[in-house]
């Protein structure tokens, strides 16, 4: 916690006073969109990748379970 009597507070206060006032309260520009993004294609790609990862994880789990069962049978 910064207490007004500490050296840390004094240092912070001096640094903040050194910032030009215009930099703090300058005009705010609204950014223009970079481009139009086709979110429907991105969502389809995301769904495809997600399903692929789930299928791969299930295959891996099934393989591990089968290996464990096979070890127990021996």
Helices and strands in order, then pairings?
Blueprint: H1 7-18, H2 21-25, H3 39-73
Could you please describe the fold and organization of this structure?
The protein has 74 residues and is mainly alpha-helical. It has a domain at 38-74. It is 70% helix and 0% strand. It is built from 3 helices and no strands. It has helices at residues 7-18, 21-25, 39-73. The longest helix is centred in the C-terminal third of the chain and has 35 residues, at 39-73. The radius of gyration is 29 Å and the shape is elongated. It starts with 6 loop residues before the first helix and ends with a helix. The model has no long low-confidence stretch (mean pLDDT 83).
Q: Please identify the structural class as seen in this structure.
A: mainly alpha
- Average pLDDT value? 83
> What's the N-to-C terminus distance?
64 Å
Which runs of at least 5 residues are low in confidence (pLDDT < 50)? none
Please count the helical segments: 3
Radius of gyration: 29 Å
**Major β-sheet profile:** none
């Amino acid at each position: 916690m910064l207490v007004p009597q500490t050296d840390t507070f004094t240092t912070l206060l001096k640094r903040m006073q050194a910032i030009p006032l215009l930099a703090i309260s300058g005009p705010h520009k609204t950014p223009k969109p970079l481009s139009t993004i086709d979110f429907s294609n991105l969502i389809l790609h995301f769904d495809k990748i997600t399903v692929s990862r789930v299928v791969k994880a299930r295959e891996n789990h099934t393989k591990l379970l089968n290996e464990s069962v096979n070890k127990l049978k021996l």
